[in-house]
Amino acid sequence: MTVCKFGGSSVADAGQIRKVKAILDSDRNRRVIVVSAPGKRYKDDEKVTDLLYQCNSLVQKGGSCKPVFEKIEKRFLDIAKELKVDTKPLQMLLDDIRYQIDAGRGQDYAASRGEFLSAYVVSQFLGWEFVDAADAVIITGDGTVNPFSYDSLRMRLEDERRNYVVPGFYGSTEDGVIKTFTRGGSDITGSVVARSINADLYENWTDVSGMYAADPRVIKDAKVIDALNYMEVRELSDFGASVFHEEAIAPVLPVEIPINIKNTNRPEDPGTLIVPVSGEKGLAGVSVRGGLSRIRLRRLMLFKKHGTRHALLTMLHIFGVKPIYTISGVDSVVWFFDSRNAQGNILQAMCDRLKTEFDLDYVEVDHGHAVLGLVGAEIPETDAYVRALTALRNNGIAPTFVNFGASEVSVMYGIRDSEKEKALNVVYDELFR
Ligand code: ASP
Q1: 37 in ligand 1 pocket by Cβ < 6 Å?
Q2: Which tens digit of pLDDT belongs to each residue from 340-399?
Q3: Segment 123-141, tens digit of pLDDT
Q4: Cα(227)–Cα(274) distance, rounded to whole angstroms?
Q5: If you write DSSP's letter for every residue of 142-192 in order, what string do you get?
Q6: Is 167 in the pocket of ligand 1 (CB under 6 A)?
Q7: Which residue(s) pair with 288 in the sheet?
Q8: Measured in angstroms, how far is the CA atom of residue 45 from the centroid of ligand 1?
Q9: Fewer CB within 10 Å: N-end or C-end of the chain?
Q10: Percent of the chain residues past pLDDT 90, beyond the cut
């Protein structure tokens, strides 16, 4: 059995939903699908989920969501009319949702309704059964999946003679209140559903023919990766590759269900196969995460006192700074964090506090950093990481650090944010052409 998740562009309008039907009709193993809310139809179009967040903001500011909700309403009614889905019950659902948003049901409720309505319309069009994620997917306080969800979903999706449509992106808290995953979270729902019914394959349908070895907006002719393993996907997503949600590996990891990233507009393309562990020791890809700031601090014998590292991190936490990457020395440490995390005056206050409490020789924060990640199971065994480093240096890019060994499948190079694109080109040319 195959579980298919269709992303926002695959359900953006009636034409796209017809493509979904053709894909399902061509393989009867595709019995359970998860859908996103309608995404963009063209470059400057608005995603339904973004509109729903706007609806909630209007209500928070004391107004009504009506002016924005009308756009959502039109979007769904147009789709339904074109697909010859009865608009009367749909109109009733829309009226109720508008009422609930205006009544202040909150952000997660509002945001979740795009997937709810999308799954409703698609289920009506296909003649498949609608299973509400709110009744079966339980999301814990920290945003991860409560394992009870698997049993609960299995019970609802059990009948092998039936076909089901499940809305992505949301579930309920343990107390039964609607809660969403982070943005792009329908990928996670797809994984949860695949695990619950022990699917043979999880197909993730999107608008590109797989994961690219480098961001195709920068490297125009970047290659699609044929196959890579779970860990490689996690790392590539962490460095900024955005095709597949970085948390969506977790549910399928223990049960080892392969994932195929496929293109709804070109279903004949093989796409990218994500397998638990690949036998191949290739290089998977390269990507860059920009917009980072750096904090550096030092004092002779800083770490002699037990627990200092922990105390330093606690201080960062108090000021809202969440380190993403760490480099440690004998008497010094460097952390990189998202620049959007903290403002200048807060950072200044944090540095002052660190300096006095830990009697530091220096503590400095600077901005405009990026980290380039080279990912692939081949990395520990070949000279690829040396070649990448040499290529960077030969092209005038002197990394601020190289981090090798923390992960078995990646190596990181600290670079300047302004060098991001050039660095990507240089490494891609050296290793992937
Ligand atoms: N519709 C949600 C979003 O735009 C979730 C998803 O598409 O996966 O983030």
Answers
A1: yes
A2: 987 888 999 999 999 999 999 999 999 999 999 999 988 888 899 999 999 999 999 999
A3: 999 999 999 999 999 999 9
A4: 6
A5: TSPBPTHHHHHHHHHS--TT--EEEE-SEEE-TTS-EEE-STTTHHHHHHH
A6: no
A7: 372
A8: 15
A9: C
A10: 89
Looking at the CA of residue 47, tell me the nearest atom of ligand 1: 4
- Per-residue pLDDT, 236: 87
Which of 84-98, 207-221, 265-279 has the largest mean confidence?
A: 84-98
Query: Which of 4, 33, 36 to mutate for ligand 1's pocket (most ligand atoms within 8 Å of CB)?
Result: 36
Sheet of 285-298: strand order equals 323-328, 332-338, 285-298, 362-375, 410-416, 401-404
By residue count, the chain amounts to 433
Looking at the chain, the number of H-run helices and the number of E-run strands are 13, 16
Q: Is the pTM higher than 0.85?
A: yes
Q: Residue 125: how many CB atoms within 10 A of its CB?
A: 20
Gap from CA of 254 to ligand 1 centroid (Å): 25
Q: Nearest C-alpha to atom 6 of ligand 1 is from which residue?
A: 184
Q: What is the mean pLDDT of the chain?
A: 95
